[in-house]
Amino acid sequence: MKTEHCEVLIIGAGPGGYVCGIRAGQLGLDTIVLEQARPGGTCLNVGCIPSKALIHAADAFHRLTHFAGDTPLGIAAGPAMIDLGKTQAWKDRIVGRLNQGVVSLLKKAKTRLVEGRAQILDGKTVLAETADGPVRIACENLVLATGSRPADLPNLPFGGKVITSTEALSLSEIPKGFAIVGGGYIGLEIGTAMAKLGSNVTIVEAADRVLPQYDAALTKPVEARLTELNIALHTDAKAKGQSEAGDLRVDASGAEFEIPCDKILVTIGRAPNTHGFGLEGLGLTMAGPHVEVDDVCATSMRRVFAIGDLTGDPMLAHRAMAQGVIVAEHIAGLPSVWDKRAMPAVCFTDPEIVVVGDLPSSATAASVFPFAANGRAMTMARADGFVRVVYDPETELVLGLQAVGAGASELAGEFALAIEMCATLTDIASTVHAHPTLGETVQEVSHMALGHALHI
Predict the structure, then answer these.
(1) Which of the residues 5, 66, 435, 455 is marked catalytic?
(2) What is the pTM of this model?
């Protein structure tokens, strides 16, 4: 049997794993990244990137359908048509280029990428089942970056009409009827795209509103847009399974009914990948279904680390990337620890939602500036939504920034930077923002909180 040795062995080439591999290589650590599928993980291959490509294509198609008649912009176009096969091919080319980009970046960092399935033998040894036969890899440090998978429902097992987000992003034709179980960001993103492409979409959510982790002020514009797009929404409702015809059975406040559909997308969350590769044999301390880690992402076993979705919420690609950098730098002896104040979360719904830091509470103050008072939003013909700042009324310290609106996701960086650098309202209000941009609303809402709003 072939044997390899390395200082750092990373299982999984998702956002956390490949970034950890690149940074470790940059620091001169002899590193191997072991991945059984294409590099990039769920996010690049079947999640973040393909879903945003589909959302963009659906939005472009939807705009064309509205230009078929009289419009305020004075633009007229013929009937809109879409070849979903070509759209999928375009999306796949983007994914392919990014896959190759990851491979090139690992090579540039002198990190070895091994294609194969991992089987952990102990905390320092992993068996890799490759196309050329088994390879025994001995390492000084083991990094677990195995990611997560779509969670399922016992009464709606995946198969047939019942699909995951992976299948939803690779459909060869647009379903006439599309039922979605779960009103979280994945279900809303895909459901909105499908509605814009012409599907009759119905969303079933067990809570009393969509995106229940956020406050109602942020989700209200999204729900209003769902109505505009003729998406049927059933809240306080539970999926009961499939009828004999394969349609979705729903119980809403004791009233049962069926939703005719060609596909049923189940998006109730994600579960960490903890089985099938020998993780159980390490006997690591767990936090529920997730691996427990400390501020350098170390597990309960010496020189074994875990990053990304395996370590729990928030299951976000950029969190995994940040953890990957910290682990690589810690192994290299640098004083790198997890002390992040801000973790941006973005919903690419229509309109988009971005949340960083604290939501409003009784112990904080908050101010809101509407996009309807922003020139750039008005020229985009989408002035719904707002920007909100949450702050300490005694010190003016900014504790949270949120927005809901078209293009709001691009404000995430400024939001995170402000909180990470402990900005005050005066810091932001005194920073000159370019005009006309959506970013001006961040300055404006800070002026408003200080009691001297300029443009409202």
Answers:
(1) 435
(2) 0.95
